[in-house]
Amino acid sequence: MRKILLVGSTGSIGRATIEVINRHPDQLSLVAICARGYSETLLDQIQNLKPRYTIITDPTARSRLQAEGLDIRDSGLLFELIRSERVDTLVFAKSGIGLVELIIEAIRNKKRVCLATKEVIVSFGELINHELEKHQGSLLPIDSEHVAIHQCLDRRRVADVRRVILTASGGPFHDREDLSQVTVAEALRHPVWPMGKKITIDSATMMNKGLEMIEAHYLFRIPEDRIEVLIHPECIIHSLVEFHDSSILAQLSHPDMRLPIQYALLYPERFPSLVGPLDLA
């Protein structure tokens, strides 16, 4: 049974993680949730999930809920839980580099780190890899492209890889030549993936794919000149790995973040998921 601390429970990745945990009650247990501030989503999670610990990092929001009689803790509990046996798996489901200290502390305490925070890998990849090697840590990405690469490379030598190909939907403007009249509302309508505002805008500008290329370099120790991008609007093939013998492995599935989340939480085991099979006919 994996004992999970979920950081960023109210965002799209956090909510999808909770769905996966609820799907596998015999394998996964949600011990603690953490959010930045007050929201109806957080209240629903507290009332329906009844986690042992609820952590809110914003002091004003924390005081408001404490005044309502709820047992809400501050961010100091995050480090306490990481250093204890009460959790063995951390899901980082929010963007930004502010989580790096928590991530490194989790690695040093030999927790499984499931990471949806690509900015941390992009900014601190060398440091995190050093900590992983030093402490024999476990870090698995929560990202459809990098989970796909992980599956294609599983127990294979990076030296045998000719190139890694990340797929990209192209965003909402991939078939438009004139972008002079683009609106924010249009940029926030991703054609496939429901995501937060920042990553949706980064996808529209293709900046997100640039970050994912850097992330792949650090996660898998692949040289930058062997990482490429292929526009694939259907988002069925999530990444490909080509080897020196010209064979290619690819990972295919419906575009649904619950699948890479489940992979990261339960690896190396496989269980039925909330995502249906592909129709290949």
Structural features:
single chain, alpha/beta, Rossmann fold, six-stranded parallel β-sheet, four-stranded mixed β-sheet, 11 helices
What does this structure look like?
Belongs to the DXR family. Pathway: Isoprenoid biosynthesis; isopentenyl diphosphate biosynthesis via DXP pathway; isopentenyl diphosphate from 1-deoxy-D-xylulose 5-phosphate: step 1/6. Residues 4-125 form the 1-deoxy-D-xylulose 5-phosphate reductoisomerase N-terminal domain. Its EC number is 1.1.1.267. By secondary structure, the protein is of the alpha/beta class. The protein folds into two domains: 2-142 and 257-266, 3-Layer(aba) Sandwich (Rossmann fold), CATH 3.40.50; 148-252, no CATH class. The chain has helices spanning 12-23, 40-49, 59-67, 76-82, 100-108, 118-135, 144-153, 184-187, 197-205, 207-220, 258-266; strands at 2-7, 28-35, 53-56, 89-92, 112-115, 138-141, 161-168, 227-231, 237-243, 248-252. The strands form two sheets. The chain has a six-stranded parallel beta sheet with strand order 3-2-1-4-5-6, sandwiched between helices. A four-stranded mixed beta sheet has the order 8-7-9-10, covered by helices on one side. Strand 4, helix 5 (100-108) and strand 5 form a beta-alpha-beta unit. The longest helix is centred in the middle third of the chain and has 18 residues, at 118-135. The mean pLDDT is 93.
